[in-house]
Each structure stands twice: as C-alpha cells, then as structure tokens.
From TrEMBL, chains A, B, C:
It is a multi-pass membrane protein. This is Putative membrane protein YeiH. One of its GO terms (cellular component) is plasma membrane. PANTHER family: INNER MEMBRANE PROTEIN, UPF0126 INNER MEMBRANE PROTEIN YADS-RELATED. Keywords: Cell membrane, Membrane, Transmembrane, Transmembrane helix. The chain crosses the membrane at residues 12-34, 41-62, 74-94, 130-148, 160-177, 183-200. The keyword Transferase does not apply. It is found in: Cell membrane. Belongs to the UPF0126 family. Signal peptide: none annotated. Residues 17-90, 103-174 form the Glycine transporter domain.
Length: 214, 214, 214
C-alpha cells in the first residue's frame, strides 16, 4: 500500500470507531427515553436503533454511499441492540449516571459530529457541506428520537446543542484544510463539541430569546 | 430471454404487485386516520398518499433507485387516490370491516415488508441490509402517517409490530439464501408477518416493559 | 456555447433564483414559528434553515443530485441565516406584514413548487414525477417546520395548500411539454400556485370533510 492508501485506511477506521461510539451513546439515550415513555422491549430497541442510526443514514444518503452503512454492517445493529438491551435490563445501573440521557446524548453528538464530518470529507464534500453534514449527522438521531415520542427536539430548545455540533465539525474541517492528522482533528473536534454542550448544560448558558411578537 | 432473465422479470412483477397491494392497504389506513381527524378531502388524500408511499420511497432512496418508483409510476398514485377516495366517500362501507385501520395496516405491513426485502435483494443488498430495509419499508408509512397527525407511532407502542415485519423479511431473506422460488418465500413471509401481527392484536400479547426508572 | 447550452444555463440560473427566493420566504416563516414558540436564537435559525431547505434536500436526494445543493452552496445558508436573523432582531417590522407566516409560506410554496418541478425536469424526471417532486419540494419545508414544533402540518389542514403546489407544478410540466420558454411557464406556475393559496386563505374556501365515522 502507498502512504496515501494507508492514510485513507486509517481515516476509514477512525470513522468506523467514532460511528460505533456514537451509535452506542445515542442508542442508550434513545432506550432511556423509550423506557421513560414505558414502551415495551421491542419499542425500546427500535427507538434505540432509530436514535442511533438516523443521523448516519441521512449523511450516507446525502453523500450517496448507499445502502447506508448502518443497514449494511451488522456491527451497528449489534451495538445498538446491546446498548438498548443494557438500558432495558439494567435500568437501575444506567440511571446511576447523572442525568444519563443528556450526557449520553452529548457523547453521541460529539462522536457523530466528528465522524459525519470526516466521512463527508472522505467522500469529497466541500468544507461547508462537510461541516453541515457533520452537524446533521450529530443532531439527526436526537431529532428523530424526540419527534417519534412527540417531544419538541432538544436541539431546538437547548442552549448550545446544534452550535456545539457545528463547532466540532468546523474544527475537523479546519484540521482538514490545515492538513492536521485526522486523529488529532477528531480529538479536538470531539472535545470542543462535548465540552461546549456540557458547559452549556452545567452553567445554563442561554442564547437570547426574541421579544414575543405582539 | 434466458431463464435468468425470466426469473428476474417475474421477480420484478412480484415486487410491483406486492407494492401496489401494500399501497392500497396503507392508503386506506392513512385515509381512515385522516377522516377521524376530520381533515378535508385533499388532506385525506395526501395522508393516504404519504402513508402508502413513505416506506417505499425510503427504501428506493437507500438502494439508490431514484426517482422512487412511487413518484415515477402513475399506478402508485392512482391506487393511492382510489383507496383514499373510497375511504372518503364510502366511509360507512369501509367502517364495516372490523377495526379497519389496524387490519389494513397489518395487510400493508405484510405486503411492504415482503416487497421491500425482495426489491432490496434484487438490487444487490446483503442479507442483513435486505431484512432491515424490508422492515423499514413495512413500518415507514405507518410512522409517517402517525407523526403527521401527531400520534406516537403505533410501531413503538404495539405488541408485535416491527417484529412481525422483521420476521416476514427474514423469511424472504432465508428463502433467497436457500434458493426457494421467490413467490413461495413471498407467500410464507407475508403470512408470517400478517399472522404474527393479527395474533398479537387478538391475544393482546405484550412484550415486557422495563421497571420505571426512579 | 450552443443554443441548447445557453437554454440549459438559463434554466439552471432560473432554478437557482427561485430556490433562493423560496429559501428566504420559508426561512422567514420558520423563524416566525420559532419566535412564537420562544425558541432561542440558534433554535430560531435552525428552524429557519430546516424549513427552508427540507423540501429542496428531499428533491435533490430523490433525483440523486447529492450532496444536496442547499448543503453545498453557501448562498442557501447565507439567505436562510439572513432571513432568520431579520425575523429575530426585527420582529416588529416583520410582523407588520399581515399574518406573515402564512403569506411567506405561500410565497415559498410558489417558488419551491416551480423550482422543484423545473429542476426535476432538468434532471430527466418524467412529467408525473416532476409534478409530484415539485409539489413535495413546495410542501416539504412546511411539513418539517410544523412537525418539529409538534403541530399538525398546515398542509393537512389548510384549504388549497398542496393542491395549489400541485397546480403550479402542473403548469410548469405542461409548459415543458408544450415547449413554452421556461421563464414563462415559471411565472404562470408561480402565479397560479400563489394565487390559489391566497384566494383559499382570503375566501376561506373549504374542501368537503367526510361524515364522521360512526
């Protein structure tokens, strides 16, 4: 293999690992929401699967790598079912994590925002497209999860949610433009995204709200 | 035509018939939901069309046969409008079927799960991908129908819904691996899916619910 | 350039202008909905962006021009953010337009229905497919906007909404079949769509509602 091929191969492996990490985190968050809503076992697993794959499926459709990897590769299904089953049968343990839906959601957001941006770059999207696709990969699963249980998506209500995903994605795009090694820009992007989101939650940072129309 | 071409042609015809059958059933279910919600004529037709095409459109996008057949082929629109109009103008007759939304929904689920799996196999999806795409083709229309009228999708609440679609799809995939004639595996898959769903409704089978998180 | 190339180039430019006009209108409508729901700044911008791009993204996915232009071309994002920011910071001004969400929505509907149909024709969709894709481009953004804030989409409730989009799209398709210049058929289609929608609102035209099932 040439050096370029090795780099591309590493890039692919990185995307896979990030994707599976995000899948686990979002599947946990989806399952916890399903349990709260008292869905049965299969409903919980399905919500876990939907929350953990919707973002990546949307990304894959938009960069035309179909069928989406989450449907082709058994590991996505396995990770999602494992996380969903864990949440279902060990609800007590999972609950010990403080405010687990939100934390898991922030972890998934960071993993997916970075993975989505990296994959979009790998398949030739431009800088703007890659950043937007990364953001959408990050926020897509949570939107689908919330719409399915008839909640207004967290991303529309929460301080520093989509903006955290966009910041993380922008770091990865900047890293790509500056030819920083992909692992380094992935770490920076992920930390920025997770950090912004968690600080937003902790400090209750709020963006302004417009004066009510009269 | 060679024998292989004849088989492929039969396969395509089978997918078309199943697709149109599912379209009719889901269009009826969508129209009944729209009538219950007191939508006007065009709203009823639109909900019928959305319920009957969303699953197949999603499948076609994910196997990259675009524009989706439901948009290209006038028969899908015609069947959908016919079913919607029937439900709208002959509401009394349609209601004589016991619990018609659920029964039509189960019929559509079976037709679409089988058609979706067959078409995914025809276009080269692997066994896992084909089974998942078949399940999604089956459940997609009902999810969109329910989200549009702001209900939590039946698939998340109902005993043996998605699992019935997955079982039917798995039969078709197994039939493909064992080289069973496609018509035979379609019949078996459809009967398994419809049977599981109806038995689930009749007997009130429930999957377990996790202990409420405290 | 040959004459054919000049025509195609004009066609593309027309689609771009219509697309950006529709983007501005739907972004305003999405932002107004977000402000009413008291979303914060980023939530308002995100809802504006979702409302203004969802229809076109769906169209682009279905005619396989991916990544969707709304993600690739910075002008879509810029127009959407500008409209969202305008609505957010100048709420009073925007409100002076009578019933602004509905009017902006009708403008966006007309622009997108025409642009969607034109682009679908440009990429080789047949007459039926182009008309349906045009309708979906028009109504998609409003559906996503309403689902995200948990309202039943206006398109299912409002008199002459989707039907206006379909009528506008049909004019464009008819113009294409009759070899009318694209600009002319765009103007006619847009006026028909906007006109039908506004007349429907003003006069309170209602389509019939089915007798309640008993």
């Amino acid at each position: 293999m040439t050096e370029q091929q090795v780099v591309t191969e590493l890039h692919r492996t990185l995307v896979l690992c990030l994707d599976l990490g995000g899948t686990f985190a979002f599947a946990l968050s989806g399952a916890m929401v399903g349990i709260r809503r008292r869905l049965d076992l299969f409903g919980v697993l399905l919500l876990a699967y939907a929350a953990s794959t919707a973002g990546g499926v949307g990304r894959d459709v938009m960069i035309d790598t179909v069928p989406p990897v989450a449907l082709r590769d058994w590991r996505y299904l396995a990770v999602s079912v494992a996380a969903g089953g864990l949440a279902f049968f060990c609800t007590g343990v999972v609950k010990k994590l403080r405010d687990p839906v939100r934390v898991m959601d922030a972890v998934g957001l960071a993993f997916f925002a970075v993975a989505g941006t990296q994959k979009a770059l790998l398949y030739g999207a431009g800088p703007l497209g890659a950043a937007l696709l990364g953001m959408m990969t990050g926020i897509g699963g949570g939107i689908v999860r919330d719409v399915l249980v008839r909640e207004i998506p967290a991303v529309l209500r929460s301080e520093f949610y989509a903006i955290a995903a966009l910041a993380g994605a922008a770091c990865v795009v900047a890293g790509g433009l500056l030819r920083v090694p992909v692992l380094a820009s992935a770490v920076v992007g992920g930390v920025v995204c997770f950090g912004l989101r968690m600080i937003g939650i902790r400090r209750g940072w709020q963006l302004p709200v417009a004066g009510t129309p009269h």
